[in-house]
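Q: Start with the shorter request: fold the first protein.
A: Done. Sequence, then structure:
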Amino acid sequence: MTSSLQGPPFLRCDSVGDILVVILAADPRKFSDEAKQYAYNSAMKQMGLTVRLGLLIDLSRCEMLDSATMGILIQLSMEVIRTGARTAMCGASPAIRETLARLMLLEPTHRQLVWRQLATPVCAVTELQSPSHE
């Protein structure tokens, strides 16, 4: 992966071709709302420059998500889906996967997100680059 944009340590955005990789690099609860807002704005800007195939959310370093971070991941994903691109997630712990699944139950059916869960960033990038991804 080539680093294309570095925000605060809350998250990092890298690109692999036309795929934006958002890596949560730390416990998001330790960062201010301002740091999260800056990171969100940076990721949105980078999506406009990079994303054609998809968004990969890498949670392999993240132990827990707070509500603001969940909101950021949902908004980034919805923006990507709106453009016709796809989303995937890797490295999410079982607790994070369960929390995100429960959160989606609160959304109307047409707005529910289901992130394709893959074991590693390499597997996820390969899947997003595949034309057969459904």
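Q: Next, the second protein, separately.
A: Sequence, then structure:
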Amino acid sequence: MEGWERRDGDPAFVFADKMGKYYELEDPAGIFWDNFAPGDTQLFTDASVYGANWEDLQNGARSVLHGMTDGHNAVVGDKVASSAVGFVGRLERLDGQVVAFDARSQLGWECVAGTWKIKHEINYAWEVEPDAIQDTLGKRISR
């Protein structure tokens, strides 16, 4: 979950700066759906708009931590690929409220000028008790 992490005192989260290496922002058309997305919409057709939608939530948090629960599920072709990952997260807002969740993501990738970029993303998350994921925070999937 590199890039999505936040710790107390970090500079402002700007999606294009932190996550631009993963998302195709030069040609941002795609499908990005997240049932946990803040705001009035969960479906986006532009990676730049999808990413900017997360900035207020990130910047309104003291910390955002994640841990991987499942990974290395991929189908890879020459120009396109699909991967699925599982992860948990813990967001602590500036007011002290904690939101913990478990999630799965399906990512559609395109090889753009020799670099893999996310063009489609479908996320589904559900809230859990913070204690249920505590031991998983910070966990990476080993190869």
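Q: Describe the second briefly.
A: Residues 15-136 form a domain with the Nuclear Transport Factor 2; Chain: A, fold (CATH 3.10.450.50). DSSP finds four helices and six strands in the chain.
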